[in-house]
Design brief:
This protein has 184 residues and is of the alpha+beta class. It has 6 helices and 9 strands; from the N terminus they run E-H-E-H-H-E-E-E-H-E-H-E-H-E-E.
Length: 184
């Protein structure tokens, strides 16, 4: 768009951070109707953990905690969570860090991104300690979950009816929307 080879570009809300938008000469024309909704994934036999997650998700939406996470990332800032009060009970969270600012490995090789903050807030609300288990391939998360190597997947998993046939899915905790931009 900036070099004149296209009139419009579609940019996700994950990419349209304040830093990005200030570095390009684009303006928002409008949002598309397409959006991706993200959920946590559980084995079919883990109704209790799913119900607990859904209660935590509901409360964190009501208190605005998830909005604060999204706002911080949109502004190109780090989210500053309250100190997590973790107790002894632990859950293993499976993830695959390949999703831009949703979940990625930073320049030092540390796991970073919004998804880490979402799971941190959910676990804090449930007084759980999240042990993060990183897998290299997206499909490996589901195999590991089925084999009992983890309790939950949180890794930019899109809520779909097809996925719901095989797994328990939490309520939607985040979504990516898409905007249409043109040159200013």
């Amino acid at each position: 768009v900036e070099n004149g080879k296209a009139d419009y570009v579609i940019v996700s809300s994950e990419e349209a951070t304040d830093d990005f938008l200030s570095s390009v000469d684009l303006q928002l024309v409008g949002n598309t109707e397409y959006k991706i909704q993200y959920c946590a994934v559980f084995r079919k036999d883990n109704q209790v953990l799913k119900a607990s997650f859904n209660q935590a998700i509901s409360k964190l939406k009501q208190t605005g905690a998830f909005d604060e996470i999204n706002s911080a990332y949109s502004a190109g800032e780090n989210y500053e969570p309250e100190n997590y009060s973790l107790e002894n009970e632990k859950i293993t969270v499976l993830c695959c860090p390949v999703f831009d600012n949703l979940l990625f490995m930073d320049e030092k090789g540390n796991l970073a991104g919004k998804e880490l903050d979402f799971i941190g807030e959910i676990c804090n609300e449930l007084s759980l300690e999240a042990q993060i288990s990183v897998v290299k391939e997206y499909d490996e998360m589901f195999v590991a979950l089925e084999q009992g190597a983890g309790d939950v997947i949180i890794s930019a998993v899109e809520y779909t009816p097809e996925l719901e046939d095989d797994y328990l899915l939490s309520d939607v905790y985040n979504q990516t929307t898409f905007g249409v931009y043109k040159r200013k």
